[in-house]
Design goal:
Layout (H helix, E strand, L loop, with lengths): L1 H13 L3 H17 L30 H22 L8 H22 L1
Organism: Pseudomonas sp. Irchel s2h19
Protein name: RpoD
GO molecular function: DNA binding; sigma factor activity
Length: 117
């Protein structure tokens, strides 16, 4: 817990320097335009309850119980074949939430630049 508090203090201190924020924003832009992993830029967020609403989750359609049972029998064979595909799923930060957050940071950075001039 003390390590997390220390990380928050350091991040808060460097966030007050506009050059740091510019660099992080440019790295995010590079990753989103040139391709790359979002987890190379960030590993998570400090405060998940900061007012940015997460995107609405999709609700799956209702499933017929008999059809689901029939599908379960055939999916066992398919599961072994597709297990390699599942290993390639990226488990980093959600790109939609990251876009919202980086957009908010970018907007605030523009306000800061105007105030400094």
């Amino acid at each position: 817990k003390r390590i997390e508090e220390g990380i928050r203090e350091v991040m808060g201190a460097i966030a007050h320097f506009p050059g740091t924020v510019d660099h992080i924003l440019s790295e995010y832009t590079r990753v989103t335009t040139e391709g790359g992993r979002l987890s190379d830029v960030l590993s998570g967020y400090i405060d998940p309850d900061d007012g940015i609403a997460p995107p609405a989750a999709e609700v799956p359609p209702p499933v017929d119980a008999k059809a689901a049972k029939a599908d379960d029998d055939t999916e066992d064979d398919d599961a072994e074949a597709s297990s390699d595909d599942e290993d390639e799923v990226e488990s980093g930060p959600d790109p939609i939430i990251a876009a919202q957050r980086f957009g908010a940071v970018s907007d605030q950075m523009e306000i800061t630049r105007k105030a400094l001039k």
